[in-house]
UniProtKB/TrEMBL annotation:
Residues 1-28 form the signal peptide. This is Lipase. Keywords: Signal. It comes from Aspergillus glaucus CBS 516.65. It comes from the Eukaryota. InterPro entries: AB_hydrolase_fold (IPR029058), Stereospecific_Lipase (IPR053228). Gene3D superfamilies: alpha/beta hydrolase. The keyword Signal applies. The keyword Transmembrane does not apply.
Length: 428
């Protein structure tokens, strides 16, 4: 395999929007800093050395082998360093944890239909008016309806509420499109829970735009999928920033509360996080993307979201978080960023992995309706598994390899900004 990283424009068929092409352009680019440029060069050199790079997951070893190697990469990286994200990516590649078949998949992620924002989703029934707002108390959408609808990816297997299947919306986090985010995990939820009907919303620009705009896509997708599924209730699963997007949608589009019956927020930064200090030193430290600015712990966005009861659940909610989260911190103790209150007595559980499963991998899967509590699961089984039974080693490595995608999305986002966006009029 030739990675075309020395002169990407000279390579026949090279796509400058591809992951590897973007990394190649970072080599020698003074605008992103010498450390980023040098690390990009090192990563590309490692990937181009086919002798040392595994061809596929089987060459990496067993699930246990991969787990131990990944753990070593994370424990070796300095979490307090500005170069933490770069060091993680380089460590995964150096450790042979990004095999060539995964490189090929990730390199073409931008053209994969799973990530498309140009989906041909059917129009909602005319009698179900969900745009420009469903309820009078909803905020007015600022995005045209055809764009909101086109971002919704509905798999061919989706049944639109038939056979008593529950629509489950997957909402992505920062810097990785939804299709790729969940390709290696919850898109396969139907294998573990046949009554789940999974779909996702591909928020443009990998959720790096204004989070208030990102939340519009989520709010519309929730009401839309209920409307086209015979008014079925919906469950929501979010990752990282996706939890903020869902909570913002629930707060300012109250009609969504009428149809969301379960919300599972994984690794959410509900109290904000030092994401900008972690990611933006890769660039000019005074310039970053809108949603990364907004996720700081003392931003207007976080203060506005948490004000007037927004720090409490609007629907039955389960949060799941880990002290070893590579991005969101703090994630331990009573002030963990993922914790959500329950002043409305809706039903909330905040689940800290290291408390429930001390010194164990906790890779199992447990499924039931309503907020999760450890007493309702087989603790020994769930905590003892490295990987859910429905997933394979390819999925484990793919999930870790997504850091490469996140790195590229942040590097290529334009225009970068020097402060967080203003709060929308409906929320001021």
């Amino acid at each position: 395999m030739t990675l075309c990283w020395a002169m990407p424009r000279a390579c026949a068929g090279a796509r400058l929007s591809g992951l590897l092409s973007v990394l190649s352009q970072a080599v020698g680019d003074p605008s992103i800093g010498q450390k980023t440029s040098d690390t990009a060069s090192s990563i590309l050199s490692l990937l181009d050395n086919q002798t040392d790079t595994p061809n596929n997951a089987a060459d990496v070893g067993s699930v246990r082998d991969a787990h131990d190697k990944i753990s070593q990469v994370y424990s070796s990286a300095n979490k307090d360093s500005d170069d933490f994200l770069l060091d993680l990516v380089k460590g995964l590649v150096e450790g042979g944890l990004v095999p060539l078949n995964l490189v090929n998949l990730l390199d073409g992620y931008i053209n994969i239909g799973l990530d498309s924002i140009f989906n041909n989703s059917p129009a909602p029934p005319s009698k179900r008016n969900i745009y420009p707002k469903r309820w009078s108390g909803d905020a007015m959408y600022s995005i045209p309806e055809d764009r909101l609808r086109a971002a919704i990816h509905i798999p061919d297997s989706f049944t639109y509420g038939k056979n008593e299947k529950k629509p489950v919306i997957l909402v992505p986090g920062t810097a990785i499109p939804a299709g790729m985010t969940y390709h290696f995990s919850f898109s396969q939820l139907g294998e573990a829970l046949p009554e789940a009907d999974v779909f996702w919303v591909n928020i443009p620009r990998a959720s790096l735009n204004d989070a208030q705009t990102n939340a519009e896509y989520v709010a519309y997708a929730i009401n839309y999928i209920s409307a086209v599924s015979s008014d079925s209730n919906v469950a929501a699963i979010s990752w990282s920033q996706g939890g903020l997007d869902v909570q913002w949608a629930l707060k300012y589009w109250p009609s969504t509360r009428d149809v969301v019956e379960d919300f599972i927020a994984i690794s959410r930064d509900f109290h904000g996080t030092d994401l900008r200090q972690l990611v933006c030193p890769l660039l000019d430290p005074l310039a970053c993307t809108p949603s990364i600015w907004q996720q700081g712990p003392e931003t207007e966005f976080i203060h506005t979201l948490r004000a007037d009861g927004g720090d409490s659940a609007y629907v039955p909610t389960t949060t799941v978080y880990s002290s070893f989260d590579e991005i969101v911190q703090l994630m331990g103790g009573p002030n963990a960023s993922a914790i959500l209150s329950d002043i409305r007595d809706i039903g909330v559980t905040n689940n800290h992995i290291q408390t429930i499963c001390p010194n164990q991998p906790a890779g199992g899967v447990y499924l039931h309706e309503g907020p999760s509590t450890p007493s309702r699961i087989d603790i020994d089984m769930v905590c003892g598994q490295i990987l859910a039974p429905q997933l394979q080693l390819d999925d484990m490595l793919g999930t870790e390899g997504l850091l490469l995608v996140g790195l590229v999305e942040v590097l290529t986002y334009e225009p970068k900004v020097g402060q967080e966006p203003s709060i929308a009029g409906y929320a001021s």
